[in-house]
Amino acid sequence: MSIKLSFFKEKSFHHHYYIEQQDRSDQLAEHVYEQLQRSPQKNHIVFICIGTDRSTGDAFGPLVGTIIHENSSKRMTVYGTLQNPVHALNLEETLKEIKLLHHGALVIAIDASMGRSDSVGRVIFASGPVRPGSAVKKVLPTAGDMHITGTVNVGG
């Protein structure tokens, strides 16, 4: 068993936030920072921000990816921005590239999600991969050692 798998089996986590609530974005940032410090792969971090710039509801990943890219340190690599999105058509190829070029890096996937009306605006930060496309019944490869999702619409 790899260090990566054993780390997350023993230290799984699941946090959710409604970002409009006071101090919630700070709590999210603190939890992400804590998990990065605990990770054995913290020396290099890859963000894979999934979605398309062609749909407002699915642009959460590329929007976040653009913000991270514009403000990131050299320890971070970002795949998926508004200018160069990672979506259903190039996800598998991008995951292969990440595995080849960033072997051993910590991969954090960011994607939009759909849920109940009372869940819209909720952000989840959790261990394990994200399952992109699952709300619309697409079968796509999973991505990430941990993930952040933002509930942007009703559905799924």
Describe the structure.
With 156 residues, this protein is α/β, with parallel strands linked by helices. The protein has four helices and six strands, in the order H-E-H-E-H-E-H-E-E-E. It is 29% helix and 25% strand. The protein has a six-stranded mixed β-sheet with strand order 1-5-6-4-2-3, sandwiched between helices.
Briefly say what this structure is.
This protein has 156 residues and is of the alpha/beta class. The chain is built from 4 helices and 6 strands. β2 (45-49), α3 and β3 (76-79) form a beta-alpha-beta unit.
Give the overall silhouette. Answer: globular
Low-confidence region ranges: 1-9
Number of helices, where a helix is a run of at least 4 consecutive DSSP H or I residues: 4
Q: C-alpha Rg, in Å?
A: 15 Å
SSE-based structural type: alpha/beta
Major sheet attributes: 6 strands, mixed
What are the secondary-structure elements, in order, as H or E? Answer: HEHEHEHEEE
Alpha-carbon distance between the termini?
33 Å
Mean pLDDT level: 84
Helix content: 25-40%
Strand order of the largest sheet: 1-5-6-4-2-3
Strand percentage lies at 25-35%
Number of strands: 6
Structure characteristics:
156 residues; alpha/beta; 6-stranded mixed β-sheet; 4 helices; 25% strand; globular; disordered N terminus
